Amino acid sequence: MAYRAGDSALYVAGKDGRIWVIRDGALDPHPVLDLSALVSTGSEQGLLGLAFSPSGAYLYVNYTDRNGNTNVVEYAWRNGRPDPSTRRLVLFVKQPFPNHNGGNLVFGPDGDLYIGMGDGGSDYSFGDQQGDPYRNGQNLGVLLGKMLRILPRMKDGSLPPNGKPYAIPALNPFVHRSGARPEIWAYGLRNPWRFSFDRTTGDLWIGDVGAGLWEEIDVQPASSRGGRNYGWNALEGTFAWRKAPKGAVPPVYEYNHASGRCAVTGGYVYRGTAIPSLEGWYVFADYCEGTLMGIAPGHGHKLVYPISGADLSSISSFGEDQQGELYAMTLKGKIYKLVP
To answer: What is the chain's pLDDT, residue by residue, as a tens digit (340 residues)?
Structure first.
């Protein structure tokens, strides 16, 4: 889910490649953009993310194409909708397998575009189905298993110089390191399915899907610079698969697969006004268990409580509206708004 500057509507991406519009709580009858002919939808594939530029002049989508590869595409916003004739490919990443595609897109407080990339996944032929067989998470020479930060357009709205599809922010941590991709902002991630910025503090919260044992939530404070290594595939949470890399940053919270849990769905720090008691809590869920959870503020991220008893299994994402109120979305085709 995303919203656009100066626009009261909410825009929701469906796995099948269509973007829907919600106005005043009602769903428009027709999608505002239909990419279903371009999108693969098997396994963890599909239309996986959307974001508007800070000005609202451009829409960006992240999807897996019919060959399963990641495409980040720009559309100019004209006459109340994206103009298909303005389509521009910003980023293409070849995916080795159909899972762990990441897919989230978020413009940060700095106006740069952050892109979550999974490690590329695996299949059973490797005998290491969940273990990142190509070791992409720790390889700074590839984009898989990373958080990227790029400028699809310059801050004045112009295209990047020299005919390039995007520019690299000058303060990206690996700009001057030989053999490292300058797009990388953070690394050592398995599948950062959903991440978000706290609209008050600017802190970056990442829900990183684990393998067979542990799910984790990572936090990068706004005061810190990029370049953090979150440990995968040497570490799953704080569990060591192999020798931990030097300087790896542990998660602020991890949980195991007890009670039917299977995969974390990252959410948002609540900054709305409808539920004052939830102010500053980080809201997230587990895809299989379906209970909304909250990490309480001010306790070192160690106090975690269920905040709703509703059965919302198959929670695939969260959304935040213009006022900071939160929504949960499911692969069952329903959207829920958090209310008192």
So the answer is: 999 999 999 999 999 999 999 999 999 999 999 999 999 999 899 999 999 999 999 999 999 999 999 999 999 999 999 999 999 999 999 999 999 999 999 999 999 999 999 999 986 555 555 679 999 999 999 999 999 999 999 999 999 999 999 999 999 999 999 999 999 999 999 999 999 999 999 999 999 999 989 999 999 999 999 999 999 999 999 999 889 999 999 999 999 998 889 999 999 999 999 999 999 999 999 999 888 999 999 887 888 998 886 778 899 999 999 999 999 999 988 999 999 9
Q: DSSP 3-state assignment of 3?
A: strand
Q: What is the residue extent of each domain of the chain? A: 2-264, 265-340
CATH H-level superfamily of 2-264: TolB, C-terminal domain (2.120.10.30)
CA distances, 190 to each of 11, 100, 132, 224, 259 (Å): 27, 7, 8, 21, 22
* Partners of residue 106 on adjacent β-strands: 114
Flag whether the pTM goes above 0.85: yes
